Amino acid sequence: MSVMRTALSLIGFGFTIFQFFQKMRDADVLHRVNAPRNFGISLVVIGIGMLIFGIIYHVQFMIGLRKTREEMTAEGLIHGESVFPTSLTLITAIVLLLVGIAAIVSMLA
Predict the structure, then answer these.
(1) Which of 15, 11, 19 has the alpha carbon at shortest distance from 93?
(2) 3-state DSSP assignment of residue 59
(3) Number of structural domains found in the chain
(4) What is the extent of the structural domain holding 35?
């Protein structure tokens, strides 16, 4: 979840920087805004990258937990009758990833 928090901060901050300098350019306050625009896009891309690696790590961790649970059930150490719960963290991370992708698409359009 710390990866999601950091990715959300990077995506939100990058998008805000991009929008702020875009509005300043539209109002003819600034004429050259390429550096802040590129910085904002970079932050969003870094946030999306972090989120992708976090999702991959989380899926690998969940697969390991399920494998360990199956082994313990086979050895009779636990009852394996209950369903392994759905990962709400994974669902939230995927939704945040979609938001980040939508943000980068709107910035590049």
Answers:
(1) 11
(2) helix
(3) 1
(4) 2-108
Q: Is 76 exposed, middle or buried (0-12, 13-18, 19+ CB in 10 A)?
A: exposed
Residue entry with tokens 């939508």: 102
59: its two tokens: 């899926």
pLDDT at residue number 78 = 86
Q: Does the pLDDT of residue 60 top 90, yes or no?
A: yes
| Nearest alpha carbon to residue 103 among 54, 55, 50, 43 | 43
Residues 18, 40 contacting (CB under 8 angstroms): yes
Count of all residues that appear for the chain in the document: 109
Q: Which two tokens stand for residue 81?
A: 């009758």
| Rounded-to-integer distance, Cα 91 and Cα 59, Å | 11
Q: Return the sign of the alpha-carbon dihedral for residues 62, 65, 70, 76.
A: negative
Q: Whole-prediction pTM value?
A: 0.82
